Amino acid sequence: AAAQETASGSGDGDKKITLGFSQVGAESGWRTANTKSIQESAKEAGFDLKFSDAQQKQENQIKAIRSFIQQKVDVIAFSPVVESGWDTVLKEAKDAGIPVILTDRAVDSADTSLYKTFIGSDFIEEGKKAGQWLVDQYKDTQEDVNIVELQGTTGSAPANDRKAGFQDTIASNPKLKIIASQTGDFTRAKGKEVMQAFLKAHKDIDVLYAHNDDMALGAIQAIEAAGLVPGKDIIIISVDAVKDGMQAAADGKINFIVECNPLLGPQLMEAAQAVVAGKEIDARIVTNETTFTSEQAKEALPSRQY
Ligand code: GYE
């Protein structure tokens, strides 16, 4: 029996899985938490992780994926910076017999056999939750409500979907008007810069909808610098619920946050193990999420992990 155990111990079952992971970048608090979750989970699961940071550029991700194919990794995972333009490189991975898992952001490829699963949030749903809160807040308004929008990275799934879900939902009340909408690239610096421009161009902003906390935090700096009170003079809604965002909500500077969970590492390792073992897995793995008002943020803050 002992000999058998030794034999199976050195067999295929114990082979370290090599996972090539191409990350979007380090643009936000969400991304930092996501990267940490993936690195820690890979370590815990005993994977050999090849991690590559694309600095928000699709061309860098394509290069990283090609290099993973050349290195013959067991499985490739990536969070696609934008939705379009992946068919060629995904076909190359498929032809090389390497399974691909999408995490966090989706691609718009018509051929869904190019990847095994997509693990991540429903961004349309997040946009709808943001919109619904606003609809409820202003249900009795007689006046126009002027909204400015800070979009995420142009062409990314969360920017496209958070915009669409929000827009569709607020359309139920014609008084709710988006008067300006521009990308802030999901970063604090760009969020601040674009908000400054919005404030210069429009004297009558009632609401800011930011596609993530970091842009909202940058915008808060611009709003305060303009002598206005964030959360009062301008109502602020954002997405993510990272610690700094939750703190701003607890302080009353952000009025409503839609949660987007970055801790995708454990689910990714589980899915990677399954596909490498040749098992069938669900084509869509959705993460569980909630929303926070200022009061709820205050309560949740002490136990927040990221
Ligand atoms: O909301 C934002 C990050 O793709 C869900 O990317 C992610 C988004 C997240 O930069 O903060």
Automatic annotation (TrEMBL):
<comment type="similarity">
    <text>Belongs to the bacterial solute-binding protein 2 family.</text>
</comment>
<dbReference type="InterPro" id="IPR028082">
    <property type="entry name" value="Peripla_BP_I"/>
</dbReference>
<keyword id="KW-0732">Signal</keyword>
<dbReference type="Pfam" id="PF13407">
    <property type="entry name" value="Peripla_BP_4"/>
</dbReference>
<feature type="domain" description="Periplasmic binding protein">
    <location>
        <begin position="20"/>
        <end position="280"/>
    </location>
</feature>
<dbReference type="InterPro" id="IPR025997">
    <property type="entry name" value="SBP_2_dom"/>
</dbReference>
<protein>
    <submittedName>
        <fullName>LacI family transcriptional regulator</fullName>
    </submittedName>
</protein>
